[in-house]
Amino acid sequence: MGATGKVSAMSSRYDVEGVHDIDVYEQHGGYEGLRIALERTSDEMIQLMKDAGVRGRGGAGFPTGLKWSFIPQDTGAPIYLVCNADESEPGTFKDRPLMERDPHQLVEGMVCSGLAINAEYGYIYLRGEFGFLSRRMSKAIAQAYEKGYLGDDVMGTGKRFHLYLHRGAAAYICGEETALLESLEGRRGQPRLRPPFPATHGLYGCPTTVNNVESISSLPWLLRNGADWYRQWGTEKSPGPKLMCISGDVEQPGNHEFALGTPISEMIEACGGMKDGKELAFFNPGGSSTPYLTPAHVDLPYDFESISEAGSLLGTGALMLYNTDRCIVDVTLRYTEFYEHESCGKCTPCREGGYWLSQVLRRLETGNGRPEDLELLQDVCDNIFGRSFCALGDALTSPISSGLKHFRAEFEAHVTEGRCPRGVTEPVRREDSSLIEQPFARRVAQDPLAAAGLV
Amino acid sequence: MASPFSDEIHDTADRIVRRYPVARSALLPLLHLVQSEQNHITDQGVAFCAEKVGLTRAEVGAVATFYTMYKREPVGDWLLSVCTNPVCKQAGGGQIYENYKTALDGHRDPETGVTVEHAECLGICDGAPVVQVNYEMFGPMTVDEGDQLLASCRAGAPPVSPWSGEKPPTFAEVERDLSGANDAWEDQLHRAALQQIAFDRPPTYRTGETDLPVTFPGGDPAGVGGAAFREAAAGTVAAPPAPTTTTGTPEVEPPATPEAPVAEADESGTPSATIDHPPPAAEAEHAGEGGPADAAPDEAADADAEAGADAQDTDETQGDR
User: Fold this and answer.
1) Which residues in chain A land under pLDDT 50?
2) A422: contact with B, CB 8 A cutoff
3) Which residue of chain B comes nearest to A162, CA vs CA?
4) What range defines the domain where residue A340 resides?
5) A169 CB near a chain B CB, below 8 Å?
6) Are residues A286 and A372 in the same domain?
7) Does the residue A397 lie in any domain?
8) Nearest Cβ partner of A338 from B120, B126, B174?
9) Which of chain B's residues have a Cβ under 8 Å away from the Cβ of A127?
10) Which tens digit of pLDDT belongs to each residue from A271-288?
């Protein structure tokens, strides 16, 4: 068991003035990891990643070294390294600060990771709405080319690595790796059926690995400092530092680095405690896709295993804290509307389920809920969970299912009182809410074919 | 009908396409590029992209309508995106958005073209509530400061972002940047694309909107992969280049003739019937010459809003499979 608490590892250059410029970056240990990587074999670097126990930082927590070892090396096809920089999970803001404040960290990580899996071509898929980052990363990559860290002859070794910066156009689903690949190929961002997995049939049908910004950026640190350096923090199964995004009703929301295994309560304290001394009511431990937890869980160590045992997920490290003024139904409704908007439309349960679930939640929040609505919500969720291609469908159900599990009385109060008991939303009377009363009947009535008696 | 796009745009688009081993990968960047010219995605823009990457307009329409950043209504110089996810909404974002809609009596100021939209989480929750001006971050702010931000945009002078320390570029400028047109290492990528298609098993191009890996070896006829098609047809496909042999900018030949890809497809046992869109023969040749004046053919007039709708249908069918 390593140390816990606040650490300064991957974020240690964040406050260095001008480190986004390559000259300053080099003065602070920049591209030293790459020099070491050029002397190592691919197997050595994959083993290093395994020894350090790096787990994917994009949400799933899959061991990165293991993922890399799945890449077939003898297919005669180019191998691709794709960086998932499409950060859009609600509550998550760790990749953006990393690229904003220390962009060369990612560029160096890309070259090193490319060498580790013998990929000569890398793609960074950057979220489109990051206008400033688009300029900053573009400049960083251009500088790295000028200095010979990228290109056909990386630092005169004859090794090759080319880097593309590809901007998306706003679609949350493109954070899912196969949807990201579809988008990178110029298609609608809809997830692919697996198998085949991207490791064998990824970008352009070639062997591909897709990794998160934070996972990729960790390799240069490991090359310089070794696996033990990484393992000095965290737990046996969840080692290392984690960039945390702490937001909501705390005094100083922000991007902080903690060792995995640090108790959640300690993280809240480090952010100055709950805002205005109000009480914590509920929180998401790792973004909107991770089931809610309650104040009873704040002393849990923040690592993959403990959070999972408590019935939630570590996700992206996005801790979103809500105080007792907040209405769980309102927050859940906003999350559900988000997923409804972001569903790619490929699978029926997610596409239709999101639509209906928001209707029912809106009905509850505006004071028009019915007693049977709670069962209805759970029933629809049960029919979505596990029945979609990708995890978006599952994510859609998690705030609702966990909300009903931990805070059922709140949902019931919306029905019995006929309004939001916390007064977050003004009640809407029935005549205004005809749309949410019988949406299907209304849709049929508005259908021109139905009007013409054709269906 | 004259092309609504300048020679420079045609040239920029061709150069973006040549960066990728498979032309279709350039579609999202190209849509940003045409949007930077016309402040939204028009039928002409869809036709332009379709021509450049060798797709039907329906296929391009399907992609353009999928992504939120491709606007179907004209946007003025300033686009304000207000985050309304829970953390921002509760911190005042919900009120800021309501005020904006009241101030503009809708989403668009008819005088200045300033446009307001609600956005999903913008990835900056420690700045809640957040408003973006042309994807430049502003926040945290009070509701009053939010109102002032809108007023400054309507006056044509938004302030410097506290996050980037820069004044937001105009909508056209930011969209051009997102197309990658300003990326300084473009020549390197042109070389990289040619290297990728020369592998024993080169990047493949799936035809149609299906999950089936129906592919053409060597990329696709419209992109640099077209070179491999021609060489394969002539029986001159070479082994992958040694790492050091590709120096200097290789000459990029004009795109494939229609015969070449078909011949290759037959030889490799891939049924040529799987091409469910016309090979971009004549149009692509134009593109290679860099900026024809008649990029939008006559049919562009009926290029139509239906393109998107058609494609939607295709996708629905696919989703239910």
Assistant:
1) 435, 437-445, 455
2) no
3) B192
4) 328-451
5) yes
6) no
7) yes
8) B120
9) 123
10) 999 999 999 999 999 999
Residue A1 lies in a domain: no
- Residue B294 binned pLDDT confidence (cut-offs 50, 70, 90): very low
Question: Are A120 and A223 found together in one domain?
Answer: yes
Number of domains in chain A: 3
The residue among A281, A300, A323 that closes a domain is A323
Q: Contact A166/B201, CB-based, under 8 Å?
A: no
Question: What's the distance, Cα to Cα, between the start and end of chain B in Å?
Answer: 41
Minimum Cα–Cα distance from B215: chain A residue = A205
**Chain A stretch 116-145, residues whose beta carbon is closer than 8 A to a beta carbon of chain B:** 120-121, 127-132, 134-135, 138, 141-142, 145
In this structure, the answer to whether residues A203 and A87 fall within a common structural domain is: yes
Q: Which amino acid is at A170?
A: A
Residue ending a domain, among A201, A231, A261, is A231
φ, ψ for residue B216, nearest 5 deg: -105, 125
The CATH number assigned to the domain holding A283 equals 3.10.20.600
User: Does A251 touch chain B if contact means CB atoms closer than 8 Å?
Assistant: no
Give the torsion through C-alpha atoms of B106, B110, B112, B113, to 10 deg. Answer: 70
| β B115-119/B79-83 pair status | parallel
Domain-located, residue A16:
no
Higher pLDDT, A31 or B241: A31
Distance of residue A223 Cα from the nearest chain B Cα, in angstroms? 25
Cβ-based neighbours of A263, under 8 Å, separated by 6 or more: A4, A298, A299, A300, A301, A302
Q: Read out DSSP for B253-291? A: PPPPPSHHHHHHHHHTT--GGG--S---HHHHHHHHHS-
Please name the residue that has the structure tokens 């191998």.
A79
Q: Which of A95, A153, A183 sits opposite B244 (nearest CB)?
A: A153
In-domain check, residue A428 = yes
Of B62, B126, B244, the CB nearest to A152: B244
pLDDT digits (tens, 9 = 90+) for B147-197: 999 999 999 999 999 999 999 999 999 999 999 999 999 999 999 999 998
pTM score, whole prediction? 0.85
Nearest residue of A to residue B166, measured between CA atoms? A132
Residues A91 and A37 both lie in one domain: yes
Closest residue, chain A, to B133 (C-alpha): A131
Contact state of B185 with A142 under an 8 Å Cβ cutoff: yes
Side chain identity at residue A392, one-letter code:
L
